[in-house]
Design a protein that fits this description.
alpha/beta, two-stranded antiparallel sheet, Oxidized Rhodanese, domain 1, Rhodanese domain-containing protein, single chain
Length: 155
């Protein structure tokens, strides 16, 4: 499932979270210090327009695109749509937890090979970095608690 990370163009790899905006708000992943972009799977056919209009990104058919969702089903559907549209370097790394593991493993491999893009390994984090990670984790936990409370209220 590993993607060849040899640069083929000027754009960094894109990480697309195809979950709903409410799912995305509970937390998302990052690829090479770049946060995921949320485009719901049923809107993935509008990828170039959404990236250009909402994020100022021009995407080409040979850009590296990585997809994930909650379980892997929606990202699998999105993968099929993008391939039908002619995107050659697109992959599905599955559900959220599996995707996190894949990205962490690939990051460790990049660091070990000395190919990290402006990053340090986990063991090189400063106290400030650790504090930022803790704040983000705490914010995600609060967002998740609010989401759960809303879901319970609807039942």
């Amino acid at each position: 499932m590993a993607l060849d990370t040899t640069p083929t163009n000027k754009n960094p790899p894109l990480l697309i979270d195809v979950r709903t905006p409410s799912e995305f708000s509970t937390g998302y992943l990052s690829l090479q210090n770049t946060p995921a972009i949320n485009i719901e799977y049923q809107d993935i056919h509008q990828l170039p327009h959404i990236l250009r209009s909402q994020h100022g990104i021009e995407v080409s058919k040979d850009d590296d695109i990585t997809l994930y969702c909650r379980s892997g089903r929606r990202s699998g559907i999105a993968l099929g749509v993008l391939r039908e549209l002619g995107y050659a370097r697109v992959r599905n790394i599955g559900g959220f937890e599996e995707a996190r593991e894949v990205l962490e493993r690939e990051e460790r491999e990049r660091v070990q090979k000395g190919n990290a893009v402006g990053e340090v390994g986990f063991e090189g984090r400063t106290e400030e970095d650790e504090a930022a990670v803790a704040r983000r984790r705490e914010a995600r936990e609060k967002q998740f608690a609010v989401l759960l409370q809303g879901l319970r209220a609807e039942s």
